[in-house]
């Protein structure tokens, strides 16, 4: 089913504490990649994090995006920029669907 990976990513994001901050090693481990892979995507602007005290920190939203990038790159042998563009589109469609469902609920419409 096409919605399963998106559902799993959304479920992961909800399970993770939005206030929690992950380290570079934590993020790399969460998407089964090396820390160097994360650094390359940070330098290219494909992932975002914060540096505090010389150490990187990441939110749960970054975990979801990093896992999506890793999956797209490995499954389709996509270069990082193409994977990021695809992830951007997936995230945009997900946000639009969520807004549509909220609007339908507000108007009392059944999908």
UniProtKB/TrEMBL annotation:
Gene3D superfamilies per the UniProt record, alphabetical: 1.10.1660.10
One family name in Pfam for this protein: MerR_2
Source organism superkingdom: Bacteria
Protein name listed in UniProt: MerR family transcriptional regulator
């Amino acid at each position: 089913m096409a919605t399963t990976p998106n559902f799993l990513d959304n479920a992961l994001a909800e399970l993770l504490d939005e206030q929690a901050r992950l380290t570079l090693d934590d993020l790399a481990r969460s998407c089964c990649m090396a820390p160097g892979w994360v650094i390359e995507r940070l330098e290219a602007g494909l992932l975002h994090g914060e540096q505090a005290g010389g150490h990187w920190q990441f939110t749960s939203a970054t975990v979801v995006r990093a896992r999506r990038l890793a999956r797209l790159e490995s499954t389709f042998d996509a270069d990082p920029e193409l994977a990021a563009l695809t992830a951007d589109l997936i995230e945009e469609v997900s946000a639009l669907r969520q807004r549509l469902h909220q609007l339908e609920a507000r108007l009392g419409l059944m999908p």
